[in-house]
Amino acid sequence: MSLAILAALACCGMPSHTGAPQRHVPTAIEANDNRRPAGTLRNGVLTVSLEARMGTWYPEGPNGKAVDIAAFAEAGRLPQNPGPLIRVPVGTEVRATVRNALDAPLTLFGFGASRGVTDSVIIAPHASREMHFRAGAPGTYYYAAKTTPVPIAGRLGGDSQLNGAIVIDPTGAVAADRIFLISLWGRLDSLSPTGLGNVTMTINGLSWPHTERLEMTQGDSARYRVVNLSTLAHPMHLHGFYFRVDARGDGIHDSLYTHAQQRLAVTELIAPGQTMMLAWQATRPGDWIFHCHFAGHLSTLVSLDNMSGMMDSTGAMRHMSDRPHQMYGLVLGIHVAPHGSDMAAAAAPARHIRLLVRERPNVYGSAPGYAYVLGGSADDSSGAMPVPGPTLVLERGQPVAVTIVNQSQDQAAVHWHGIELEDSYADGVPGWSGSADNLLQPIPPGDSLTVHFTPPRAGTFMYHSHFNEFHQIPSGLYGALVVVDSAHPLSSDADRILVFSDHGPTTNVIRGPFPRVTMNGDTAPPPLDLQAGRHYRFRLVNIRGDAPAQFSLQHGDSVLMWRAVAKDGADLPASQATNRPATLLFAPGEIYDFDFTAPAAGGTYSLVFGDPKVRDLPALLQQVAIRVH
Ligand SMILES: [Cu+2]
């Protein structure tokens, strides 16, 4: 969970019942892959007839747990989650008839002239209403409805899946795309160890491993429209490739970026009610994933299947199940088939690294701590538990072989975050990375695994656990990875690598206790020493478990200036490498590089980091002195 946000919802008295009307109609709800537009388009007019009604939803596949919810159906068809897709060319007149077959009044958003959540109508139980709007600016929009008094972005229960995408296409040729709508259904339970009852998070109505498998061929390009109609933000992360962010919207407006505004990223945060459009090209074959980087959003916390191990104080620590992976929720699997036989042959490794996974009991209360340790280092022989793990410095274009030696009691897997890997086997997602005949498995305790890759781009990256992430990451299994070349050097004089995570795992995601934010493993780091007038590169890495982090460089209460230079390891184009206030709010999975010129000596300078303000909860910030010499 993004704990603080759900906690904020909890304080607002979220109803724990499903929130939807009680009439039970056992119609199965279909998952909607958002490929088929609803309605009839004739002479510039789309006529569509929708109905909100009760049904039974199977977010974990037909044999999984069922949830009775309200959903939209196209008249005469099965209800769908997400609701039927409204997709029209710009200028189309959309005429929608919406019938409320529920026993409670339905507040419907998105079918008015201004769309989004600015525009609502209330439809009485068993009444119908006709609405129309003209499709204006091309982009990604949505409709949504509720039967409870909470805002659309506060729905958790039986009305939380009353959602659908609206896409307005430009005239002329339309590039192929896919539409992914994120939703959340759940119940809080003050008696459960996690604070949660059952929760599911879904993409197009399904939770991993039941989400759609996206089939591509090497060289194909992909365009994703993502709509977040859940109560929580999600930093969406693509493995193995950069995507280009082409548009961002809020359901009311969609801003299609100009060429100068487009940027590369591997992680993009999407808040509740927001939309985004991403494009990328699958230039390398293999099995990859596109997932939310809040570790709780791909953990058992969002599994309805209690048999899979709803987290409890013991099961949380040891996911020694027979399942090949521990992911649930917001994950899409992408299979890229090789095109011809032009796969690059792996070059002989020029450099070998041993990376140990170490564990020590009772580091965070009764929970164990973990650490990555560089084989052959002083930490290796001393038995130390360095957190973060060693900063791995690799050379662009130089092949590396990393042998991961699992000395812990849990299973292990390492993901090379942001690296454009030539072979997905190295990507670190057990049960998925690699290929059907060479599937990556988690590394059992006492075992080891060697992976090979050649980083093609210089920049700031990271490595982290991709097994039991909700526990292993906040408990120490992460480190920075810097790829250098002649234009992108790294020196202890000019570079400051700051890695943000958590001081241990969370058990109860609603009540806490919540771990403090750490900077380079410390909740109260020592002062930072800088030399007056010198140029520094700040490399900021967020690998918190489940929440964003805030960072700023200050002179007293005023914020200093810095220049943005890279995002997620990719250099920014000149149009975006701009001077700006030295303050950053960023999510797990995001990495930023900034150039900063140290001010003159004598002032009171500080670095401030921690938990940002979330809704009604105050910010929880730590101040670190900057000593300018
Ligand atoms: Cu998420």
Explain the layout of strands and helices.
Layout: H1 3-11, E1 28-31, E2 40-42, E3 45-57, E4 67-74, E5 79-81, E6 86-89, E7 93-100, E8 106-109, E9 120-123, E10 128-134, E11 139-146, E12 163-169, E13 178-188, E14 196-203, E15 213-217, E16 221-228, E17 234-238, E18 243-249, E19 254-256, E20 263-265, E21 267-270, E22 275-281, E23 286-292, E24 331-337, E25 351-364, E26 367-374, H2 378-382, E27 392-395, E28 400-406, E29 414-417, E30 434-435, E31 438-439, E32 448-453, E33 459-465, H3 469-472, E34 478-484, E35 495-502, E36 517-519, E37 528-530, E38 535-542, E39 549-555, E40 558-559, E41 561-567, E42 570-571, E43 579-581, E44 583-586, E45 591-597, E46 605-611, E47 620-628
Parallel strand pairs: 1-3, 1-5, 3-7, 6-12, 13-16, 15-24, 25-28, 27-34, 35-38, 37-47
Antiparallel strand pairs: 2-3, 3-4, 4-5, 7-10, 8-9, 8-11, 11-12, 13-14, 16-22, 17-21, 17-23, 18-19, 18-20, 18-22, 23-24, 25-26, 28-32, 29-33, 30-31, 33-34, 35-36, 38-45, 39-40, 39-44, 39-46, 41-42, 41-43, 41-45, 46-47
The protein binds copper (II) ion.
Short description:
This protein is mainly β and 629 residues long. The chain has 3 domains: 306 residues, Cupredoxins -  blue copper proteins (Immunoglobulin-like); 147 residues, Immunoglobulin-like, CATH 2.60.40; 112 residues, Sandwich (Immunoglobulin-like).
